[in-house]
Each structure stands twice: as structure tokens, then as C-alpha cells.
Design brief:
Blueprint (H helix, E strand, L loop, with lengths): L2 H11 L6 H18 L11 H10 L5 H13 L3 H8 L13 E5 L9 H9 L3 E5 L6 H12 L9 E3 L9 E5 L2 H10 L5 E4 L3 E5 L6 H12 L9 E7 L4 H7 L10 H16 L5 E2 L4 E4 L9 E7 L2 H10 L4 E6 L12 E3 L17 H6 L14
């Protein structure tokens, strides 16, 4: 991909004809933001102890490790080659791209979980009307301000922060629970919208995994305390799989039990299940429970045995709307799956084109026609 094509995409971002020098400056701003997020600038981004402390004070789930992991993950999307590979997939100059006000209702279950929606909105030249989660406004604000700092003087990101009613927006991207989504469907029924509900991820083991692959799976399970839609909350294991093997390899995650909120969840669910005489396997930092459900509570991990891989895949595809991705030893062994398959250890490392719920956010934003009559709406 030629660098000029990448710059063309950024030219469309700001909706104006600009010279080569300016295109290079805009490209540089994103690359520099990636450096900031990955901690390559001293005392900034994940190296900023005050920022990390403020984020954790706002949300006790956002400990230092979680914040750093999230920032590094967002920064990986801003490697120059990754950006080029992503943005070259779109026809940036094919249609009119007048500015729309895009309402963004962000989730707060993970640090910076709403960043991708913010980035997509601004990259397509629209104004981001951001209703940040009360659990994740510190980091989100810091990243947007950092991006602004890398732009040339006089160029401003089109951002409005709202804390109350969201009004006069032309389209909406919102993430919430099933109950919240019913509320969104009602209030935004007259607007183009992307509404995302709760999903989770699972892993399939075939018994031939190396210790290193099992260790990698631990990152999918325990990173962010298992609270993300890309967190593995259920394992599918071949009949006869030795669960003790997991415990031995995952002992490096035993420190997670020292986190007060995680420990409270662990103790609560252990007490309830034991009171109800539910069979459990536990090791002090995770409860393993045999269960047919996909989503296990924090502090626990569901598992289920299988004997036929084809039947299992068919079952998971029938529930594709409940799943974000499936972690497996070798994704190439599964073709044309309705649910994205990723290698063990990589569920929490999406690229910018790995869109949540499989909905292409950039295409949605570029497709907002200037001829549409869009009605204002609001949300409390």
C-alpha cells in the first residue's frame, strides 16, 4: 500500500483538500498517539503514574495492569502499517462526507473500551458527541486530549462531551446491557444506529495444546478480570481432559485473588454454589463449574466436555449472536465460521478491523448519506 493512498484517507477525514505536508502531519498525529499509548514517550500514557492513579480511583477494577494492557492494545492499532492496512480497505472519496453529529454512548466495563468508536467517528470526519461512562472518563478524556496535542495548531478534533441529555445527534453508536438496549431502541428508533449488547467469548481445547498455549489462554481468561466481551468465560474440553493441568500452568495468575473486588465475587459465588450443593473445582483464585451457559460470573470459569468437534461448532454457530470470538489452537482448522476464531492468547488483542459484533463501524459512518433527514433524539 502506497503511503499516498493512506494520506488520502486522512484527507477525507478532515473533509478538505490539503497539501502533502498537511497529510503527512495528520498521519503523524495518529502514529504519535500510538507511541503515547504504547508507553514509548517518557512520563506519558501508561508511564504517567498520576493518570493511572486517577483512573483507578474512578474505577477500582481499573488497576495499573488493566490500564496499561488496554492502552498498549489501543496503541497496537496505531502502528503505521496497521493503520494503512485498515484504512486502505475503504473508498474515502467516493461520496459526499458532510459532517454528522454521532452520539457515542460508551461502555465502562474495561479501560478505553469505547475508544475504537471514538476513533472511527473522528477518522470519518464526523463530530463525536461522547457520553463517556462514569467508570471510564479519566482515560478516555486523556487519550482524546493526547491526540489533539499531536495535531498542528489550528486543527481541532470535533468532539463534544456530554454528561446529561444527548441531543441533536444524527446517528448513534451505543453499547449496553440487554435492558439498556431496549431503552436505546426506543429513544433512538428514528436514527441510524449501531446498538451492541452483552457478548462473551469461549475457548475450545483439543487436548494437544502445549504448556505455552495453555499459558496464553490464561491471558484470555484472567486479563481485565474476565469482564470483557472478548474475555474467555467458558472452556470446551475434550472428554477426559485433566483440569489440574490448567491450575498448574495458571498459577501465575494467583495474585488476582488479592484484588478486593475480584475476591468478593469469588467468595460470594463460591458460598452460593456450595450452599446449593453445586460441584465445584477451585484453587483459591478461580472457580471451575460445569455449566452449559456461556457467560460465567467474575471469579469463575464455566466448562463443558465434548466428543464431537463438528457438533460443537454447529452449536456455537447457532449462538453466534451471543459470542464475540472463539479461541482455538489453530484457527486455520476451521473455515467459514460464523463466529471469528483467533489463536489462544489473542482474544484481547483485536486489530482495528476486528469490529465488535461483526458490524463494520467505518462503513456505517461513511454510509451516512447527506440526503438523509435525521431526527434529533436524546438519552438521559
Amino acid at each position: 500500500m502506497a503511503m499516498g493512498s493512506f494520506s488520502l484517507g486522512l484527507e477525507r477525514t478532515f473533509g478538505a483538500k490539503i497539501g502533502t505536508n498537511m497529510r503527512n502531519t495528520l498521519e503523524s498525529s495518529l502514529v504519535h498517539l500510538g507511541e503515547w499509548l504504547r508507553g514509548e514517550i517518557p512520563n506519558r500514557g501508561p508511564n504517567d503514574e498520576l493518570l493511572l492513579s486517577q483512573a483507578e480511583m474512578q474505577n477500582r477494577w481499573f488497576n495499573e495492569d488493566s490500564c496499561k494492557d488496554a492502552m498498549h492494545g489501543c496503541g497496537a492499532m496505531l502502528e503505521a502499517k496497521v493503520l494503512r492496512d485498515w484504512l486502505q480497505r475503504y473508498q474515502w472519496g467516493a461520496e459526499s462526507n458532510d459532517v454528522k453529529r454521532i452520539g457515542l454512548v460508551l461502555a465502562g466495563n474495561l479501560p478505553l473500551v469505547g475508544w475504537h468508536d471514538v476513533m472511527c467517528t473522528l477518522l470519518t470526519g464526523h463530530e463525536a458527541v461522547i457520553k463517556a461512562s462514569s467508570s471510564d472518563s479519566v482515560l478516555m478524556t486523556a487519550v482524546v486530549e493526547a491526540w489533539q496535542s499531536f495535531l498542528p495548531e489550528g486543527k481541532k478534533l470535533k468532539v463534544e462531551w456530554v454528561t446529561g441529555k444527548m441531543s441533536d445527534v444524527d446517528a448513534v453508536i451505543a453499547t449496553g446491557s440487554a435492558n439498556t438496549n431496549r431503552y436505546f431502541e426506543y429513544y433512538f428508533k428514528d436514527l441510524p444506529r449501531i446498538l451492541r449488547s452483552q457478548r462473551t467469548s469461549v475457548a475450545i481445547l483439543d487436548g494437544s495444546e502445549s504448556n505455552e498455549e495453555i499459558e496464553a489462554l490464561g491471558r484470555d481468561v484472567f486479563r481485565y478480570f474476565g469482564m470483557g466481551c472478548r474475555s474467555v468465560t467458558k472452556l470446551y474440553l475434550p472428554v477426559g481432559f485433566d483440569l489440574n493441568r490448567l491450575f498448574k500452568i495458571w498459577i501465575e495468575w494467583s495474585h488476582i485473588a488479592n484484588h478486593n473486588k475480584y475476591a468478593n465475587n469469588y467468595d460470594y459465588h463460591k458460598a452460593v454454589w456450595l450452599l446449593n450443593q453445586v460441584d465445584l473445582i477451585e484453587n483459591g483464585f478461580v472457580l471451575l463449574k460445569e455449566d452449559k451457559a456461556f457467560l460465567s460470573p467474575v471469579g469463575s470459569l464455566f466448562y463443558e466436555s465434548f466428543s464431537d468437534m463438528s457438533s460443537l461448532i454447529a452449536h456455537l454457530e447457532a449462538h453466534a449472536n451471543d459470542l464475540q470470538c472463539i479461541a482455538v489452537r489453530n484457527p486455520e482448522d476451521f473455515r467459514d465460521s460464523l463466529v471469528p476464531l483467533v489463536p489462544l492468547g489473542t482474544t484481547q488483542m483485536p486489530m482495528p478491523w476486528d469490529y465488535a459484533d461483526g458490524v463494520d463501524t467505518i462503513s456505517f459512518l461513511l454510509g451516512l448519506s447527506s440526503s438523509q433527514k435525521l431526527k434529533p433524539s436524546h438519552v438521559e
